[in-house]
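Handout, section 4.2: multi-component inputs.
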Amino acid sequence: GAVVSQHPSWVICKSGTSVKIECRSLDFQATTMFWYRQFPKQSLMLMATSNEGSKATYEQGVEKDKFLINHASLTLSTLTVTSAHPEDSSFYICSAILSRDRGEAFFGQGTRLTVV
Amino acid sequence: DQQVKQNSPSLSVQEGRISILNCDYTNSMFDYFLWYKKYPAEGPTFLISISSIKDKNEDGRFTVFLNKSAKHLSLHIVPSQPGDSAVYFCAARGNAGNMLTFGGGTRLMVKP
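Output:
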């Protein structure tokens, strides 16, 4: 299947700092990528849809200024958690789809963010 | 309002037997359904999918059944293996856009 690579796999940062997470589609071009967040023992919650060359579409309740998404190329989307706080500690996962005809989304490995 | 629900948070099955994971949805506009397997601290791995125009899709040990009238789908794993132990998420896609809505997940434990 298609490969989506996410980096870093884990990061620890201090409160008030910003953290950037990268999501790359390695063997295909992804015009659309998705960012999810997972709290312990809970489901994956969609945060935003990242569209190449345009602004991301955020889900209700997700702060645009806090979670900055940039999709500058067909193979790279980034999520920047700005002014991180301990409550931002979570597992963040990106995904991309090959095409609408092939509906399965391929996921990155996830990033465990811990804000101390 | 949860549009995709997995009502069983956990399931325990003996090795070699069948595992049946269930998923219910409320949005009749969903046109594509998927099952993912997830290990802790890893991204979900795609298992199998089914279009809303079908009622069954089979791939090796995995079969997904879709009952549109009941808005219900299920994943059958047979025979179950200890390596199948993981959290399984069902997901659904609307007929416009590509985002997926996930159920809460079911933790499957296959005992040797």
